[in-house]
Amino acid sequence: MSPTPDRPENNDTLREARGRLGEAIAEGRLQTVFVATAIFWAVMLFAADLSPAVALLGFLATAAAVFFALPTGGKIATPKTADRLPAKRWPDTGMKLLLDGMEEPAFITDAEGTLRYQNAAAAAEFGPARMGDPLAFRLRIPEILDAVQRAGNGESLPPVRFVERGASERHFVARCSPLRLPRPEPRRRPDFVLLRFRDESEAIRLDRMRTDFIANASHELRTPLASLTGFIETLLGPARRDEANRERFLTIMLEQARRMSRLIDDLMSLSRLEMKAHVRPTEAVDLAEILPAVVDMLTPVAATRQAVVAMGEDLPMASIAGDRDELTQVFANLIENAVKYGRDGGHITLSLTDEVGDDGRQGFRISVIDDGPGIAAEHLPRLTERFYRVDAARSREQRGTGLGLAIVKHIVNRHQGRLIIRSEVGVGTTVNVWLPRRPSLTNADVTKEAEVATSERLQA
Hints:
Layout: H1 11-26, H2 29-47, H3 52-68, H4 93-100, E1 106-110, E2 115-118, H5 120-126, H6 142-152, E3 160-164, E4 170-179, E5 192-199, H7 201-236, H8 243-275, E6 284-286, H9 287-303, E7 308-311, E8 319-321, H10 324-341, E9 347-356, E10 362-370, H11 392-397, H12 404-414, E11 418-424, E12 428-436, H13 443-459
Parallel strand pairs: 7-9
Antiparallel strand pairs: 1-2, 1-5, 3-4, 4-5, 6-8, 9-10, 10-12, 11-12
Helix pairs in contact: 2-3, 7-8, 8-12, 9-10, 10-12
């Protein structure tokens, strides 16, 4: 197999050496060598007692060797110390190991934009490429290719940002850095160009979510505040002595103030959950005790809609590591949603069963099932977004803040569980919450705690 044409052990090294010889001629160093050679053979002629013919032949041979070492045609090379193109090189093992140790995608090209190496992250992100091909064969992003070309000319560039369109929008920041190997003479053009990518999609998504959250929260608070301000101005002005409408205005103002209070409470609750999202709860709680308590608490609420909340009596013991108050909030929110957005006189069913998770962990599935109007499929992926409402008017009518399911999702995630919502228009909605069993419990511990719990229920 023939060697790679542009590797340093081939003709590029020879061409570079001849270029240096041309510079030596231009600077007068080669003439000095000829003079030194002549002096050497003259000394040898007399000191070593050589014959004049031998000394002359030696001098001519040296001169011929130097002459044939000149560049093409014996022409003197024009000095280009700063601007001469560097020989095409390949990164050494150290540079490759450094790139392989980087988590972000990275490429190394030469000054002309020819690919010399890519790390595993770059191959996974952009696909494998053949070394020696132009970078444009793999990356067809004009901004990036232009940056590599400019970096190959020795320019220092700011980061380049670009968006990759596809199934999901992805944002990248690319940085091009010229790399120069140690050399005795300065060079304007680098030996290599290092191209690095950083994926900022998640940071931009979080920033957008934060911006949207602030905008939505401001809007939700501004609406009742504007209502309160308007009624207060009315009572202080035209309706100062309007006894007939004063009570009606004050009732509306009270409801708007309560709406603001509920919204602030939910915002504070969401903020507290986010602050401790990485802290796993350790308290041992039994779901079989929490669920009946939540049902008893919400029975009066269901009665206002003539709805019935049903749950089996013989619930299995379901001991998990959790926060009792947060879990109570989860199931209270889900049952209350089923009552509010279900049908009048509807039926809501709760169930608790053992279930193995997708990752093989033992756990429990709690289902809240209603026979309401259901939710269209296009709304399901967004139900846990903050302030997202399927029917905004009905949500406000039912005193909803649009944060209930977002709070539920945060609590379930903190408990290392899963939240799955399924619905069919005209049939109803099923909300499944899966929570893992306490990992420290053995089968003997489960049996013992079940016996204790059963004994306590019988005594009660």
